[in-house]
């Protein structure tokens, strides 16, 4: 058995930064966020702390502004709410959401399976003026890829993908 003598090393201990036991005010948390102190988790936690502090004030009263129910998933993108599988679109810019468009009822074969919001790059000039406005790429159950205007719901383009393959989702891959 081999025994080694303990080495003499000097350890310097650093104290952890002092943490406050009370709650920080919103201005202090916002200034920390703007300077970039902390990591992403810390920022999210601080943002939620600010929101919680604002919402849970004792003198806070809430007023019901608007409500809508949907059997399908409600999606939100670019200040727009999409209901009934992207068939109904509401603008969220105003105090009370306003309907932008309602698409005509589609058959089961033309049901929208997946969508992707598209915005044109500012620095490129595109052939059609409608190409510069935001649009919604919609994949249907019968393999059609439809480009709809995000403002009016008007069909801008329609492309048949393939009779041999079944497409289920649209996604953007940047490599």
From TrEMBL:
One of its GO terms (cellular component) is Cul4-RING E3 ubiquitin ligase complex. InterPro entries: DCAF17. It comes from the Eukaryota. GO terms for biological process: protein ubiquitination. Pfam families: DCAF17. PANTHER family: DDB1- AND CUL4-ASSOCIATED FACTOR 17 (PTHR14815:SF2). This is Uncharacterized protein. It comes from Astatotilapia calliptera (Eastern happy). The gene is DCAF17.
